[in-house]
């Protein structure tokens, strides 16, 4: 724990965050601020990894997904591997101690590489984790991604991962009717390029029974984390309007980030 406290403290910056609206205002003179300390929250399958990873490239800060840290530990056949496998495949949460330990190691390795700031994905997932993070650093923004539950299940069941490049794809073609005042939602499949096609696998925790258990656990243990940050005025609620082509420009817009700048850097 000492390492995570030291490391998180060392990257602390303070920025203005509007507490009255859901529109976050970055520092005007610095449209691509560094030393960002953001958190992505959201149910399993909502797309935390996709959008956190895109933003991390866009902003030049590391994307740290605790689910990836858990899967790396699982595949390393280290001492924790068997215990973690059982927990993950039941859709349960790994203990706060184990997660803090994995995150601390990841931050230490990043510090050695000269990394600054982070976009956390999948952490914190319990109020206790949020309190620990709060004690040691100043999270400036928490993006809460949202989709209807039926869409989340379809997305998890359609998810495929390339064993070589580790990228996520999705074979589901989603057309969900609007509910509870929400408009209908459509998402085209996100198909892999030809070189990944033969290397796709389905995560062992992406079965219908385990996804439903992960959603239940999210509602029980992780939803209170939303309230934790809402009461601090840090929560930016974002209802995804569709797939990446519809959602990404909208997300940049609510974050006051300049899409034009992205196009220019992609073309360079
Ligand atoms: N912060 C965390 N606290 C406890 N367990 C975690 C945490 N992050 C990841 N895990 C474990 O790793 C699994 C996979 O995480 P992740 O890839 O983030 O999945 P999801 O698609 O459910 O958001 C979780 O179901 C849980 O068992």
What do you see in this structure?
Belongs to the adenylate kinase family. It is an enzyme of class 2 (transferase). This is adenylate kinase. InterPro entries: Adenyl_kin_sub, Adenylat/UMP-CMP_kin, Adenylat_kinase_CS, P-loop_NTPase. This protein is of the alpha/beta class. It has helices at 2-10, 48-59, 66-75, 81-89, 96-112, 127-136, 149-158, 194-197, 208-230, 244-254, 259-267; strands spanning 37-41, 63-65, 118-121, 141-146, 159-162, 168-170, 174-176, 185-187, 200-201, 235-239. The protein has a five-stranded parallel beta sheet, with helices on both faces. The protein has a three-stranded antiparallel beta sheet with strand order 6-5-9. The N and C termini lie far apart (42 Å). Residues 9-23 and 27-31 have low confidence and may be disordered. Bound molecules: adenosine-5'-diphosphate (ADP). The site of adenosine-5'-diphosphate has 18 residues, from helix 3 and helix 4.
Name its key features.
268 residues, globular, single chain, three-stranded antiparallel sheet, alpha/beta, five-stranded parallel sheet, binds adenosine-5'-diphosphate, Adenylat_kinase_CS
Major sheet description: 5 strands, parallel
Give the SSE string: HEHEHHHEHEHEEEEHEHEHH
Tell me the strand percentage band: 5-15%
Tally of helical runs: 11
Bound molecules: adenosine-5'-diphosphate
Radius of gyration: 18 Å
Q: Order of strands across the widest beta sheet? A: 2-3-1-4-10
* Global geometry: globular
Strand-pairing-aware structural class? alpha/beta
* Average pLDDT score: 86
Question: Roughly what percent helix?
Answer: 40-55%
Low-confidence parts, pLDDT < 50 over ≥5 residues? 9-23, 27-31
Count all strands and give the number. Answer: 10
Oligomer: single chain
| Euclidean distance between termini CA atoms | 42 Å
